[in-house]
Amino acid sequence: MRSSTTNIEVTMIEISHLTKRYGTTVAVDDLSFRVEPGRVTGFLGPNGAGKTTTMRAVLGLDLPTSGTVTIDGRRYRDLPVPLREVGALLDAKALHGGRSATKHLQALALSNGIPLSRVGEVLQMVGLQGVARRRTSGFSLGMSQRLGVAAALLGDPAIVMFDEPVNGLDPEGILWIRQLMRDLASEGRTVLVSSHLMSEMALTADYLVVIGRGRLIADTSISDFIESGSVSQTLVKSRDDALLASRLTQAGLSVRPGDAGGIVCSGPGIERIGDIALEARVALDELTPIRASLEEAFMELTRDSVDYIATTPSGAHSSQSAATSEGSLGQLNNLSEEAYR
Amino acid sequence: MTTAIATSTSPTHKDGASGSRRPASFADVARSEWVKLTSVRSTWITLAVTVLLGVGVGTLISGLAASRYSTDHHLHLTWDPTSVSFRALVIAQLAIAVLGTLVITSEYGTGLIRISLAAVPSRRRFLAAKATVFTAVALVVGEVTAFAAFLLGQAAIGTSAPHATLGQPGVLRAVIGAGLYLAAIGLLAVGIGTLLRNTAAGISAMVALLFVLPGLVQALPSSWANAITEWWPTQAGSQVYALHGGAHTLSAWAGFAVLIAFSAVVFGFAQWMLVRRDA
CA of A222 to nearest chain B CA: how many angstroms apart? Predict the structure, then answer.
């Protein structure tokens, strides 16, 4: 990933103790992290977690209540040619419907002294050259997303930020944007992409920053993230599950019946279970570590920080916690289905 | 949508960007605002409406007034052909005010403001460039409207009543003043639009400033009404295209200075708020 970083200036975003309040609502709460070049950093959190607010603060659009956001040590508003340093796609539908794609990009290019020839290049890059002269009011969400990406790439910036870029894209568009983000990172650029979809991050990000309710939950590589979020469990199948289960329980391990037969043992690793089975002289048929998926790890970490959760209709006090996790999982699954439609 | 999947990004990412890296200037932002202003249909519509109302309706009014001149002897006492040809500016100013509001509120309405301010983080520069470009356009269109309204209006008056010429004392000042007035109203609308950040609210505020409040003032005791009318920014400003000042009016340039000062205060406040508020 970092193979080609030698001749490219190192540009990173540094967010330090960022707090942003809107009235009494705390959108971002003492958030600190760094976004480094040469990799895709996934910015993950449930809806309302503060991802967009953070990105707006990076761009100097929302002024922090306290804390700082810097681009290579400089505030965004002090950048002499901002579009050449940071390209951002925040809201694809933020377009004047009466203006053509070309004119929209020309206005942006001129404001930063970028040659107008660049407009045709980026339109080509995102595949919109055929509709360049059409008014954007007729654009689908997917086309608007592509125009937003074109605008972000206009200044050939060392940093790119995309807020929920796969929303509204067709499957081809989703593949395209994933590849684009990886390419941008492999060129040595700093890539920050937000999503509420863990599954999307699993496919594109090298590194994760997870927030919930405006606070940092995790700042870690993808693989470490799975480790930290997973509860280690092992599926055990044997010739005498009942005997083995009692021996495991005697050894202080927690055991429950598996969904499809066998027993599920929580706690330490496979070796210990194997040893106990050997002592009990029970032949094992299967011994499988159950790895938490990224989605589950995400749920585990953000469980306490989800703002909007579906709960069971009425009188479900006893099963409140179960309803909470199921509700939010269901919500996430729905959202992922939507994104792939 | 038929689009080729472009997987390659710019090959020019060697030292961060293609081309030179000179800092962006006010002129860059002004050029950008020029493209924004001229690339949407609403600009051309509102400008055309300004000219059409000012010139078309003005000429019509001039012709009708002149035809009444021979029969209506009261008209002889107050006959001012210059003012007659500018009577439609009262309506035309609303069209330029709508455009002045739209140049900023359309950015808020669409969310484009965030893209604009990310591209131009200096908000003072952003608004100054936008206002400069718009006011320049409004001034050109305003002067075209003023001269056309005057010349066609006088032609419509023709021989049925005394008409004015540019060479008469004060007439050229009044004609140029009419264009200046339209541009100043436009600039005021940019300030109001920036403060209110909403098209409907901005236009309503302009209607209130131009028509509703001055009308309400007439309901006050006349000593109050006269004083307020004299100094009401838009009414004081309109003296710049009046040939003769009436009772309780400021002189042409003093009146216009009041309008400009008011617009400048509103604009300065709008700029200050723009810098302070989250986009």
Answer: 24
Classify B273 as helix, strand or coil: helix
State the DSSP string of A75-125: -GGG-SSHHHHEEEES-TT-S-TTSBHHHHHHHHHHHTT--THHHHHHHHH
List the single residue in B with minimal CA-CA distance to A82. B119
Q: What is the pTM of this model?
A: 0.82
Element (H, E) at A29: strand A25-35
Structural domains in chain A? 13-227 (3.40.50.300), 231-290 (3.30.70.100)
Using a CB-CB cut-off of 8 Å, the residues of chain B touching A142 are 1
B33 in contact with A at a CB cutoff of 8 Å? yes
Evaluate whether ipTM surpasses 0.85: yes
Q: Look at residues A341, A320, A286, A339 and name the one whose alpha carbon lies nearest to residue A165.
A: A339
Residue B2 and residue A130: Cα distance in Å, rounded?
A: 8
Question: How would you write the pLDDT of chain B (279 residues) with one tens digit per residue?
Answer: 444 444 444 444 444 444 557 899 999 999 999 999 999 999 999 999 999 999 999 999 999 999 999 888 888 888 999 999 999 999 999 999 999 999 999 999 999 999 999 999 999 999 999 999 999 999 999 999 999 999 999 999 998 999 999 999 999 999 999 999 999 999 999 999 999 999 999 999 999 999 999 999 989 999 999 999 999 999 999 999 999 888 889 999 999 999 999 999 999 999 999 999 998
Q: Which residues pair with A135 in a beta bridge?
A: A100
Residues sharing a CB contact under 8 Å with residue A311, sequence separation 6 or more, in sequence order: A320, A323, A324, A327
Q: Domain map of chain B by residue range?
A: 26-276
DSSP secondary structure letter of residue A47: T
- Strands A233-238 and A263-266, by their bridges, are antiparallel
Question: Listing from the earlier edge strand, what are the strands of the sheet with A215-221?
Answer: A86-89, A159-163, A190-195, A40-44, A207-212, A215-221
Are B6 and A9 within 8 A, CB to CB?
A: no
CA distances from A172 to A165, A169, A184, B162 (A): 13, 8, 18, 74
All residues of chain A having their beta carbon less than 8 Å from the beta carbon of residue B125 are none
Contact present, B41 and B137 (Cβ < 8 Å): no
Residue A258 in tokens: 């598996």
Which residue shows structure tokens 């958030």?
A31
